[in-house]
Design goal:
Chain lengths: 382, 138
């Protein structure tokens, strides 16, 4: 891992607008985001020789490369498990570039879930295992699966709905500062939160992310090459994936310890190969498909002890000026839910000093991917 | 309602359930229970498995109450209880199921105030062989 430490940098980011419904296809949105990221970096499309995305990305490398006139590709990679793959796309490119398999990499995610279908609504598709153990009982949606862990966390550790509200509020407050966010200029109050409809008790409407149409991309090159780019390089200081022993995906109920999820595994590797500790992190972008994932991740990544993830959110800790400002663009809960790729681009903006909710002199940012599924994480620094 | 889409490893569970028996896969060499079923024992890597009958008693480890939007059959009975039951005979085995007032009862047949983590439950089976759970002290 010493090979990877600061050996590569993110030098370009790009995105389309975010909306409930965009007329363009996923493929067209992907192309626009990638071109925007390359333009941001000041790198020509025909210099790209590596691509990485998610297995759930439907615009494949062949389509992207031929539509955008990319060069000969010598590395391409796809990462599984939905939102667990976000940070790993960058990690795969960083590894490829650091080891000489490629020179200019692009990672991207394009998604139309705001206007597209919900897989759990489809009754005609045969449900794969482990669905046979859960779906017949009406445990149908990701919200139901995570609510089971949230309820147990509340029972064991005294985590409350107010703690989850703290998470939702911090994300919403930052989105209110971000004109690109779907929830720009739409404030949230405790009363709105507590009176909102249930989705899956103990999770309510505002505990759930926004299904969104949109695409994002970023460009990764070697640290050496990065010095000649248009923007301040944001270095990939450490990267990790995490799939713990005896893990079961969204339904980790059969693990000996279901409340220690993939974050714990990714975190051990991430910190082991870093010059930084959780105390050195100025700002964090933590995967938030559901509010309840944030207390679990705060524990997993070592910002607090086990069981203290709920209490950590008290006293404005997650807000600007707090102990650990999180999801400063609004995150999946209030900017856009695009499988967490917006958390990577926001991490880059924070370290460039260009966030709409800038943490003064931010020098180190943790970005995480989906907790609850095999995951990934990045430590970024400037 | 959704019915289990059974795979090769899981088939014996459903065959026993259809006869009103709750059985869990265990290693025939080292004896460790495992769930969900799979071809190889993660403890000793043996491929020899057996299906051991359990008492069907357990405790609620956690639960959720889904509300619509849901598939129509489920929305019609929402909010209902989905429970995760830790088996008395095999505490690390936890089964997802529904807490109901009796075999085959509606999914919303137990009032919300009756349910709590730690409550003792007992398995029952629907006419189609789906395991469900009732409170030991209703
Ligand atoms: Zn064994």
């Amino acid at each position: 891992m010493a090979v990877l430490k600061d050996a590569t940098a993110i030098v370009g980011i790009g995105q389309t607008p975010f909306a409930k419904q965009l007329p363009a296809t996923e493929r067209a949105l992907a192309c626009r985001a990638i071109l925007a990221a390359l333009d941001d970096a000041g790198i020509a499309p025909d210099e790209v020789d590596a691509l990485a995305s998610y297995t759930m990305e439907e615009t494949d490398e062949v389509e992207v490369a031929k539509a955008l006139g990319l060069g000969d590709l010598t590395f391409f990679s796809k990462v599984g498990y939905g939102g667990g793959g976000s940070c790993a796309t960058v990690a795969h490119l960083a590894a490829a570039i650091a080891t000489g398999q490629a020179t200019v990499g692009v990672a991207w995610r394009s998604r139309k879930r705001g206007s597209g279908p919900r897989p759990w609504k489809n009754t005609t598709v045969q449900l794969p295992t482990p669905a046979q153990w859960t779906r017949p009982y009406g445990l149908l949606r990701p919200a139901d699966e995570i609510a089971m862990l949230a309820r147990r966390h509340m029972h064991e550790y005294g985590t409350t709905r107010d703690h989850l509200f703290n998470v939702a509020l911090a994300c919403r407050n930052r989105a209110n500062q971000n004109p690109a966010a779907i929830m720009y200029e739409r404030p949230l109050t405790r009363e709105m939160y507590m009176n909102s409809r249930w989705i899956s008790e103990p999770l309510c409407l505002f505990d759930n992310c926004l299904e969104t149409d949109g695409a994002l991309a970023c460009v990764v090159v070697s640290a050496e090459r990065a010095r000649d780019c248009r923007r301040t390089p944001v270095y990939v200081h450490s990267a990790a994936q995490g799939l713990p022993a005896q893990h079961h995906g969204m339904v980790n109920y059969w693990n000996d310890d279901p409340l220690t999820g993939p974050a714990w595994t990714a975190a051990r590797h991430l910190w082991k190969h870093a010059d930084l500790t959780p105390d050195d992190i100025d700002v964090a972008q933590i995967y938030d498909a559901f509010t309840a994932l944030i207390p679990l991740s705060l524990e997993g990544y070592g910002f607090c002890a086990r069981g203290e993830g709920g209490a950590f959110t008290e006293g404005g800790a997650l807000e600007t000026g707090g102990r650990l400002p999180v999801n400063t663009s609004g995150g999946g809960l209030s900017e856009a839910y695009v499988h967490g790729f917006n958390l990577i681009t926001e991490g880059v903006r924070q370290l460039r000093g260009t966030s709409t909710a800038q943490v003064p002199e931010a020098a180190a940012c943790l970005v995480t991917a989906g907790e609850g599924v095999p995951t990934s994480a990045l430590l970024l620094r400037n | 309602m959704l019915t289990p889409v059974v795979d090769d490893d899981g088939a014996p569970f459903w065959e026993y359930a259809a006869r009103g028996e709750l059985r869990v896969q265990a290693c025939a060499d080292c004896g460790e229970f495992r769930f969900p079923p799979r071809p190889c024992c993660p403890h000793c890597r043996s491929f020899a498995a057996e299906w051991r009958r359990v008492s069907g008693r357990g405790r609620i480890w956690s639960y959720v109450r889904p509300h619509p939007p849901l598939l129509p059959d489920y929305a019609e009975q929402a909010p209902y209880h989905v429970v995760l039951v830790e088996l008395a005979d095999a505490p690390r085995i936890r089964l997802v199921g529904n807490l109901v007032s009796g075999p085959g009862a509606r999914l919303d047949s137990v009032p919300a105030e009756r349910i709590r983590i730690g409550a003792r439950v007992q398995v029952v089976f629907t006419s189609t062989g789906l395991p469900q759970w009732v409170l030991e002290r209703p």
